[in-house]
Amino acid sequence: MQCIASKISSNHVFNLDLVHPDFESKYAPLLGTFDSCFAMNVIEHIEDDSLAMKNLVSLLKVGGKVLILVPANPILYNDIDKGLFHFRRYTSSMMDQLFLLAPLKMEKKWMFNALGIPAWFFGGKIMRKKEVEGGQMNLYDKLVPIARLLDVITFRKVGLSIIALATKR
Predict the structure, then answer these.
(1) CA 48 to CA 139: how far, in whole Å?
(2) Which of 29, 70, 88, 159 stands 20 to 30 A from 40 (CA)?
(3) Most distant CA pair in the chain, distance
(4) What is the pLDDT at residue 1?
(5) Is the full-model pTM beyond 0.85?
(6) How far does Cα 65 stand from its chain's mean position?
């Protein structure tokens, strides 16, 4: 699977393949030009996540920021993840390692959606579901206030996803 990133500048959109074998040559004019980049539920779809992060960071200016959201807790990896074409779920230390290789200085990292863990486990591991059904999402939408409260109670240390903010060195 390829990862495509876009940059909108002066009414132009550039499609970027973050794992292109000759990334630096192909995208040379864009290297070091971004103030910030984000990848929301992207990196877990790329087999060579280290290469994707390295290339993503090469687009940033020194001091530029990157915001990443990935699924958490490898023990929860199941058929739903496979159906979504995820290669992995992350631990906090896996995120630290990925950011060190990039090289990025971690500014802040937190988890969220602890409430989703039992449903993800039950649906994917026990029921062997391959996708989250619409009715389940509608129910979860109604429970978001409880999910937010649970995230506060757990000090954002437990969750179905990890968000990390870092700065290019």
Answers:
(1) 35
(2) 29
(3) 50
(4) 37
(5) yes
(6) 15
pLDDT at residue 10, as a whole number: 57
Give all domains of the chain, ordered by start, each with its CATH number.
4-168 (3.40.50)
pLDDT < 70 regions, the chain: 1-14
Q: How far apart are CA 60 and CA 77, in angstroms?
A: 31
Dig out the tokens for 134 from the structure: 């619409």
Give exposure, 103-114, as e/b (b: 16+ Cβ within 10 Å): ebeeeebebbbb
What are the Cα distances from residue 93, in Å, to 26, 96, 115? 32, 5, 22
Residue 154 neighbours by CB under 8 Å, 6+ apart: 111, 114
pLDDT (0 to 100) of residue 101: 87
Q: Which two tokens stand for residue 127?
A: 């029921």
